[in-house]
# Entry
Amino acid sequence: MWERAIVIGGGFAGKLAAKALSSYFQQVNILEADREYKDPVPRKRIPQGYQPHVLLKSGEEAIEKLFPQFTDELMKNGSIGSNFTRDLKWHHFGFWKDRFTGDLNMVQQSRPMLEWHLQKRVDRVSNITTRYETMVKQLIVNRKQNKVLGVLVKSFKTGMEEELYADLVVDASGFGSKSIDWLKTFGVEVKEEKVWIQLFYATRLYRLKKQERLDWTNLLISPSFPENPIGASIQTIEENRFSVTISGYANDHAPQTNEEFFAYAQSLPVSDFVNFLTQAEPISDIKIYKIPNQVRRRFDLARQIPEGFLVIGDAHCRFDPLFGQGISVAAMEALELQSCLHQTKRLDIGFTRRFHKNIAKQIATPWEMAITEAFRHPKIKGKNSFLLPFKHWYTKRLYQASAHDPFIYITLARVMNLIRTPLHLFHPKVVTSIVFGWQKKNV
Ligand SMILES: Cc1cc2nc3c(=O)[nH]c(=O)nc-3n(C[C@H](O)[C@H](O)[C@H](O)COP(=O)(O)OP(=O)(O)OC[C@H]3O[C@@H](n4cnc5c(N)ncnc54)[C@H](O)[C@@H]3O)c2cc1C
# Structure
């Protein structure tokens, strides 16, 4: 075992990375700027905590590998179980999907509940400590050997600065990470790929006025560019609550008032969302979160990143949240970290580069999926490949064909959950149906 690893940030990526590290280091220290939280409520430094957070199947499976029986614990404590193809009522590109019981059983809850349960599991690992109210301000690097030695921190409790030393430092400080600036001071340039989306999420919690049984657990009205640019979703969460969200791209105005929220609901192509609002009452304010860009930071392509310094989670790549990928990708990266540590005896020859190259492969698919969809919006532009028109044509047909073809729907659902590669969308049965069959079934 190596002596000590430091993890900057105790969000999802930080907690999961810490667990992966705990089998290979005597001590793992998570340094977290936020205060300790004793209840499953949104945290100050996680403003997106009010927004709905889906846990994809890939993320659930990765978390289970790191923390066995985690899903059971969630379910015992009030999470909601749902079957993806049966309990999601989903409208997209003009069609409702036919619903049926498939093999994708999901677990859902508010983000604070998910994170709080994970923190409780982290607290039970004897060689992981979480030091709260501790802000990392800079890396300490041995320039001659190009090796990270530790970090400089400031304690919000004492106001004191301190140097902490470690064999490995993992930056999991989220999208606001300062890694690129820190590395610049050591002469290392990291390029960013950005796709402007200017997306808003406007979310409000509701409860049903009367205890009625709905025939769905989640309702999703996906934006279908260019005709219906507004998206809407309702997610059932613990304690008989519903997380109700409206989203819009490219600088659309975010609804601030009850009237504006309702007006957006009425503008949707189907009435189910508005019907729900009339049956329910709000139990929170409208919380708005804006995401200007999707950003992929190319640590995998940068030269001379100090050995022993790794970047994961949103600090590495922030996706369009509409695809619900962030936590799951962070969990898959933590598993990759475990596997890289398992295969190495040394942290100083190429370990950093190898890890970043490996997770770049994991990031590539969700990144491609998210930016390809965004480019459908007439105002969202970027460096497009010549294949883009084909991808848009094929995936639109795929979405439409999946409405009435269970094989296509379950294949699509598995790819969206990142448990199958997009190559499965080119299965002969899928291609045949898309090219020859879908129109007949959908008229
Ligand atoms: C509106 C919205 C909806 C989303 N929906 C989904 C969804 O449905 N499903 C999904 O999987 N993902 C979703 N995401 C993405 C998800 O929120 C992120 O991918 C996830 O939080 C990333 O985890 P992280 O640990 O990398 O970063 P964060 O969760 O941001 O955690 C970073 C942590 O680092 C700490 N920190 C920051 N700087 C420092 C420092 N210098 N020193 C010490 N500590 C520091 C912060 O306090 C924080 O605790 C959504 C995001 C948004 C904005």
Observations:
- Residues 197-291 form a domain with the Alpha-Beta Plaits fold (CATH 3.30.70).
- The longest strand covers residues 192-208.
- The pocket of flavin-adenine dinucleotide is lined by residues 8-14, 31-34, 45-46, 48, 51-54, 135-136, 172-174, 176, 201, 289, 291, 313-315, 321, 324-328, 330 (CB under 6 Å).
- Residues 125 and 282 are 39 Å apart (CA to CA).
